[in-house]
Structure formats: C-alpha cells, structure tokens
Specification:
The complex is a heterodimer. By secondary structure, chain A is an alpha+beta fold. Chain A is built from eleven helices and 13 strands. Chain A is about 25% helix and about 15% strand. A five-stranded mixed beta sheet of chain A has the order 12-11-10-3-13. The longest helix of chain A has 19 residues. Helices cover about 75% and strands about 0% of the residues of chain B. Chain B is built from 17 helices and no strands. The radius of gyration of chain B is 23 Å and the shape is globular. Classes of the chains: A alpha+beta, B mainly alpha. Chains A and B meet through strand 4, helix 6, helix 7 and strand 8 of A and helix 6 and helix 7 of B.
Chain lengths: ~300, ~425
Amino acid sequence: MVDLSKIVPLSPIQRRDFIKGALLAGLAGCTPHDPFTNEAKKENVQPSGEMVKLLSTTGEIIEVDKAYLKPTEEIPSISNMAERMGIEGKKFVMVIDLSRCRNLKKCQEACNHAHFVSDFQNWIKVYPMQDAETTAPFWQPTTCMHCDDPPCVKVCPVDATFKRQDGIVGIDADRCIGCRFCMAACPYSVRVFNWDKPIIPQAVKDLPYSIETSCPPKIGTVSKCDFCPDMARKGELPHCVTACPNGVFFFGDIYEDTVTNGSETVRFSELIRDRSGYRLMEELGTKPSVYYLPPVDRLFPFKNEQNS
Amino acid sequence: MSSTKITSDLLPQKFGKTGRIWTAFLILLCLNGLYCYYKQVTLGLGITGMRDYASWGIYISNFVFFVAISLVGSLITAIFRLTGVEWRTPLTRISEIIAVSAILFASIIIIVDMGRPERFTHLFLYGRLQSPIMWDVIVITTYLTISILFLYFPLLPDIPILIKNSKPGSRVQKFYKFIGSFWKGTAAQFKISENAVKIISVMIIPVALAIHTVTSWLFATTFRPGWDSTNFGAYFVSGAFLVGAGGVVVAMYVFRRAYKLEAYITDKHFNNMSKVVVMLALLYLYFNINEYLVPAFKMKKAEEHHLHSLFTGHFSGLFWSAIILGMIVPVVVLLFPKGRKPFPAFLMGILVVIGAWFKRFLIVTPTMLSPFLPMYDVPESYHHYIPTWEEWSITIGSLAGTLLIITIFTRLFPIIPIHETIEEMEHSKPEKT
C-alpha cells in the first residue's frame, strides 16, 4: 500500500477524510451510482435541483446535485511534517552585496508586509557599520543567518525551532512555548518575540499556521526571517530579494552553485571567490548560510537617505 | 532541660496578632501577583518591561535567585551532617523548608516567564535532551523530590508528638494522622529512616551542585559576551551557598524572636553561621574577581560594552553596591566577634540576601543589553530594561509565596526538630557528668 501522506501530505484528520473520499471515489468507478448522492441521502440533504458535472477518478463524467457537494475546510497545501523536512535536494544560500546597499529599507518594508511583522519590529535590520574609527562606514542588512550549526536550535527545549534539510532554520509557532532561550542564544540578534497580540487582518488570523509562511504570527511565540520557503517552493525569490531596487540580495541553491538577484544570475563559488565573500562572526562556529561581499567600489556614498 | 519542656517550647503555636497580620500581608502580596499574572496571561508578555533585546528580565533573575537560595538545604542538612557539624540540628528544618519552598517557586516563576504557559506540557511531549532547559527541568524535579524527602523523613518522629498534642478529632490532627500515622517509632523504623537520610545526604550533594551548575549553563551555553565563561558553574554555586547561608541567618533570627527560641538557637549558632557566611563570601568574592578581572584585563571588543556598563556605566551603582554591601561589608562586620552577635548578624544576612538578588539581576540584564551587533533601528524602549509594576508585583508575589509556605509550615510543624533535640539532650547528659 502506498502511503498517501507521502504523495499528498495532509494532517491526520484531513488524511482520514481524504482516505474516505478516495475509497468512495474508488467505489464510484465500479458502481454506476455516484457516491455523493448515496452519502448525501444518508445525511438527509435535500436536493436543490441544480446539477453539476464532475469527472470521477476513473474518467467518467457524473452528474451530482449541487446541494450534495460539501465545501471543504481550508487545507494547508503542505503538512507540518513536510514543512519541517524542507525541500529535498536543495541547500539555500544568500549573498548580500554590501557595495550596493544605500539603506533604502525596501527589503525591510516588503518583508514586514509579507509576514505581518509587528510594528517597531523587523526581521531584516540594516545596520550602519564601521570596523574601526579610520575605516569607511557601510550599510549592512542582516537577515536570519540560517546557520548550519544553529545555536537557537541547540537550545530549544521542544523542537519548536529546527533545521531543515534545505538549510532553512524554521519556527513552528504552534509548538513554541515562548521561553526565549533561542533569542538569548542567537549572537546575531535576529529573533523577535510577539510580546502583544499581533494586529493582523481577520482573514490571515483564520488561516492555519504554516511554518513556511510563518503566518499568522501568534502571541507569546518567537519569530524571525525564514528565507520565504513558500516562495522557494513556487520557484520564486524571497520578498527582500525582489523588493530591493539595487540588487543587493542574491538568493540561490549552493548545490546548483547559482545565486540570483532577479536580474543577474551568477556562479556562487565564483562570486564568493572573486569578490572575497565572508560570513559574519565566523569565529563563533555557527556556519551561517548568508555570505557578505565587502563594500568595495561602492555604488552609493554612505549617508542616511531616509532621515535626510 | 526536661523533654516535656522542650516539647512545649517547640510545638507549633497559634498565630498571634503579628502572625496574623504578617500572613494576611503575604496573602495580599500573592493575590496582587496572581492578578497581575492573570493580566499577563490574557494580554501577553507585552505588559512587562522586557523587549527583544532584554528578552529575559527579573523573572529569570528571580528564578536564579530561588535556585541559589534553595541550595542551603543541602549545605546545612547534608554537608554539615557529613562533616560532623554538631550544632546544626536546630537549623536543619529551617534550611530544608527554605529549600523546598524556594525550589517550588523557582519552577513556578519559570512558567510565569513563558510566553505560552498553557504549552508547559510540550516540555514532556516534545522535550529534547540537548537543550539545557531540559537538564534544568530534570535536575530541579530531582532536587525538589529529594528535598521534600529530606524534610519529611526527619519530620516523622515528631508526628506522634504532634498527634498527641493536637485537639482530638480536629482537622489538623487528621492531617497529621494522614501524613504520618504509620510511624510507630519502632527501632526498625528508626533504622530505616536513619539509613534513608544517610543515603539522601550523600545523594543530595551532587544533585545540589548540578542544579546550580545547570542553571549557570543556561547562560554559559549561549553566545553572549558576559556569559561566555567557563567560570560560571563554580561562580554560581559559590554565590548560591553564600545567599543560602545568609538566608538561614535571617530566618534563625526571625524564628528566634517570633517563637522565643533563645534556648535552642543560641548566640553560638549565630557565631558559627556568621563564620560560615564570611568564608562563603570570601569564596564568592574570589570567583567574582575571576569572572570580571580576566575579561576586563583583555577588554575584547564584544565584552567592552558589557563591562563598561557594569563598572562605570548604567549598572555601576547597582554593581558596586552588590559587591560592597552584599559581600565586602558583611565580611568585615562578621570578622569581629561583636558583629557575630544575633542582631548584627541578622542585618548582615539581610544585606547578603538583598545583594544576592540584585547580583542575579546584574548577571542577566546587562548582558542582554550588550549584544554582538549594535542595538539599532529599534524603538527607544528596546534600549533599556525597566521592569513594569506588573512585573514587580508578580516577582514580589512569588517571593511572598515562599515566605507564606514557610509561615504556614511553621504553624503546622515544629521548626526545630523536637525528637532530635530531646535525644541530643539525653545523649549529652551522660557525657557531662
């Protein structure tokens, strides 16, 4: 027997309904009667007289009364387990080109908008950095580093934050107990906590929680940048990458050795080698998946354009 | 002293006027804490002063304080017992009830700190052993169990005395009968109990060291400037012994005054406990020098902000008061025989305990506010940590809760073991003559 959950990942309750449906659909193939009508008659549903045509699993066209069809509940497209596993055969990587950043914060805006990040909190922070008094200052956008040896995952007592096979560190807000140990452990200060009830539209509030969209945000839990795995699943780029007008962010797959900012696509290894890419706080041994290109030959002078 | 006199002296007494006011005051503080906690559960942790940078605040420092003070149980009952300290008998039950109530509230306050307290069971459903929090859960449960047994076994010989002296058929007597009527006081039972206590006193020492070391690891296993220390385990344990000893000195004085126990808790006890406090304070000072001098000498970039905030910056007032008033002044005062008299020792005990609470605050907060990447692009309130009144209410409520447990316990049980005291008096008689 094929495990249905491997093909169509569903949560247990929905899986039971699905199997029931599949069995009924199987029956439909060998009997002339459609299962909808039989089931509906058992539940005493009155026919409305309006008929709809449906294609059965065996390719036959059957006619069913519209009243016999039940609207299904919102089903998440991917199961929690599949979301925890991640996308097979991928290892996501991000390259941030510091020479292109002029602190427009479009990345931040797009990210906050897409993930309903609370007011005053940001998943992406753009820091003014300076290594020493006499060196040049530069803007440094930071996202979650999606470390290969993530300190947050080590310390989480309930497996609410976890490392996926595609390199993404995710958070399950349905699992998080809000102890904030991961926030204490993260040296990059990228995690934020939902201190108050998140202000979100009712439609979003009603959605089942998805690890891949990190939505809807939940009170009393931790959240952070997630590399937008829902976009990756669709074959699209994370929101920050597409929102940046200067092409600061490159996103890609380290196995493919390709990263792209939407308009340019480059070899990851060549980019890192030729432009002397580095990672933040390498000495801590967290092995981040976010690489930085040093701010040499900068496209813009360093000034705070937002405030001026 | 005759055994009837000892019994009547040590039997739990009804609350007097002060006792009733004290209990009512504690209950009031607890209720206020409960109300604020209700508010926190419904509105979220946003009502506290904690924000993304200082994401741990006085709840966690209070937790560390509770774990620290609970260590006194093992110090006095186990270590003193194994090293053959004779004068410890009147202090054993005091220290053990402090330990039990403190560790109980340590586990409560950690649930208070959780953003999702209703998911507490997740720790058991999805618990992962690699998280230091799980180590803490395991070791705290073990320590709580052992401490309760350590309180309970030596209590058993006193229960027949309590049953005899309580009103027949009263609820209190039923309660005594419920917890100890199986105790007949036979030689075999005494032998079992004695062996059990012996085993526990050996067992409790590693567990006690583990509980506070594990609590220190909650901090030391993170990537944070002020916590990145191999000294942390020893530093925490030595500090815990100090605050525990200080707490016992305070409790000794209060019980002696409240229950007129001058004949049992004598000046000698204050004298000896004060010497213990001096030794432990010096030990803790030694570990403090290790903790701050070495990083301050090198002044690595990541440590700089944190150490400056402690030595000369925002937290310097609190830091130096905790060091000077909480350690150096008690050492100096208690070095003099006059300083080891009950009242000055009591005052020094209070200084040690309060200093220790603020020391725990200084371990948690300044580090949280000294991250590797600068605090930038956050609202002004994220740059500081000022606990809100709700947070204080809950914290004070938890402290009042421990005192309430101790108060109710002493209302029900003799705070100085009756049976043991009688036995000791009888044993010491033939030696004297």
